């Protein structure tokens, strides 16, 4: 864990709906044009989902993809980066996803918790400052570079961070105040079959990188009698 104010989202988590908005700062080919309300909502939901899951099953800690389907529902399927590993040494995950799902994931993201004597705006500014230093953002789908799908999203207000027992913060179950700043991507709809998604992100000045390769099996759901 970095500090309470600058913490890699790969080592932390959050739940509870909050509003996010695009931040127009070009980094490593990431797309910065125009607001995307649906993407903003997905950014909030993905963080809510991941950080409500206890550490043993948390998707940031998953080394194989064994917990890829845990708690997934609705029209969107969430994928995640790792809790930190070297670029060039990817964590290999396998995941089976029903056809027709929208796939959404962070490329690099940070969660920031204000100290008791700090304002929310101070935390927002601090989170932006650390994410401004992101210098590695790479997304490949089936061998093709797709950095054009990466967008920066950040909190515009504080949100509730609901921490379960045995959470990845390693603190007692509680509700905290938090904000976030990061980069996310909505993948194009994938056809039935096997696809490989490689995500690399990092803020080398902060000493954090993540490299994960997903082998995704997109399957057509079977209708039971």
Describe this structure in words.
- Strands 1, 2, 3, 5, 8, 9 and 10 form a seven-stranded mixed sheet that branches. This protein has a five-stranded mixed sheet with strand order 4-12-11-6-7, with no helix packed on it.
- The radius of gyration is 16 Å and the shape is globular.
- It is mainly beta.
- Strand 6 (136-141) and strand 7 form a beta hairpin.
- The protein has one domain (7-219).
- The model is unreliable at 1-29 and 31-39 (pLDDT under 50).
- The chain has helices at residues 37-50, 120-131, and strands at 7-8, 20-22, 76-78, 91-98, 102-112, 136-141, 144-145, 150-155, 159-163, 174-186, 193-203, 208-219.
List the SSEs and their pairings.
Blueprint lengths: L6 E2 L11 E3 L14 H14 L25 E3 L12 E8 L3 E11 L7 H12 L4 E6 L2 E2 L4 E6 L3 E5 L10 E13 L6 E11 L4 E12 L6
Parallel strand pairs: 3-5, 4-12
Antiparallel strand pairs: 1-5, 2-8, 5-10, 6-7, 6-11, 8-10, 9-10, 11-12
The overall strand count is 12
Unreliable stretches: 1-29, 31-39
Per the principal axes of the C-alpha atoms, what is the gross shape?
globular
* Average residue pLDDT: 80
- Tell me the count of domains: 1
Helicity level: 10-25%
Distance between the first and last residues' Cα:
49 Å
Q: Report the order of strands and helices.
A: EEHEEEHEEEEEEE
Structural class: mainly beta
Sheet-strand content, in percent, reads 35-45%
Q: Count of DSSP helices?
A: 2
What can be said about the biggest beta sheet?
7 strands, mixed
Question: Taking Cα atoms only, what radius of gyration do you get, to the nearest Å?
Answer: 16 Å
Supply database-style keywords:
mainly beta, 225 residues, globular, 12 strands, 5-stranded mixed sheet, single chain, disordered N terminus, 2 helices, 7-stranded mixed sheet
